Amino acid sequence: MKVRVHVMLKQGVLDPQGEAVRHALGALGFEGVGSVRQGKVIELDLADGTSDETIGQMCEKLLANTVIESYRIEHL
């Protein structure tokens, strides 16, 4: 079974990488970009029957820093 985990900084947490991308887009002539939030996507190929609880534990313990990041699990 395949899952995709989307990890993003929580609202209100400064995103310096997103700000750098926004600035670079402006420097390249792309106007009208108000803000950019950058995150990461992790695809996992897991044994069939792996529970959502187990996937959540993976996210909580390693894949996301839950102090400043949120995550969303997508089953593929």
TrEMBL record:
<keyword id="KW-0658">Purine biosynthesis</keyword>
<comment type="pathway">
    <text>Purine metabolism; IMP biosynthesis via de novo pathway; 5-amino-1-(5-phospho-D-ribosyl)imidazole from N(2)-formyl-N(1)-(5-phospho-D-ribosyl)glycinamide: step 1/2.</text>
</comment>
<protein>
    <recommendedName>
        <fullName>Phosphoribosylformylglycinamidine synthase subunit PurS</fullName>
        <ecNumber>6.3.5.3</ecNumber>
    </recommendedName>
</protein>
<keyword id="KW-0547">Nucleotide-binding</keyword>
<keyword id="KW-0067">ATP-binding</keyword>
<dbReference type="Pfam" id="PF02700">
    <property type="entry name" value="PurS"/>
</dbReference>
<keyword id="KW-0963">Cytoplasm</keyword>
<comment type="subunit">
    <text>Part of the FGAM synthase complex composed of 1 PurL, 1 PurQ and 2 PurS subunits.</text>
</comment>
<dbReference type="GO" id="GO:0005524">
    <property type="term" value="F:ATP binding"/>
</dbReference>
<comment type="function">
    <text>Part of the phosphoribosylformylglycinamidine synthase complex involved in the purines biosynthetic pathway. Catalyzes the ATP-dependent conversion of formylglycinamide ribonucleotide (FGAR) and glutamine to yield formylglycinamidine ribonucleotide (FGAM) and glutamate. The FGAM synthase complex is composed of three subunits. PurQ produces an ammonia molecule by converting glutamine to glutamate. PurL transfers the ammonia molecule to FGAR to form FGAM in an ATP-dependent manner.</text>
</comment>
<dbReference type="GO" id="GO:0005737">
    <property type="term" value="C:cytoplasm"/>
</dbReference>
<dbReference type="GO" id="GO:0006189">
    <property type="term" value="P:'de novo' IMP biosynthetic process"/>
</dbReference>
<keyword id="KW-0436">Ligase</keyword>
<dbReference type="GO" id="GO:0004642">
    <property type="term" value="F:phosphoribosylformylglycinamidine synthase activity"/>
</dbReference>
<dbReference type="InterPro" id="IPR003850">
    <property type="entry name" value="PurS"/>
</dbReference>
<comment type="similarity">
    <text>Belongs to the PurS family.</text>
</comment>
<dbReference type="InterPro" id="IPR036604">
    <property type="entry name" value="PurS-like_sf"/>
</dbReference>
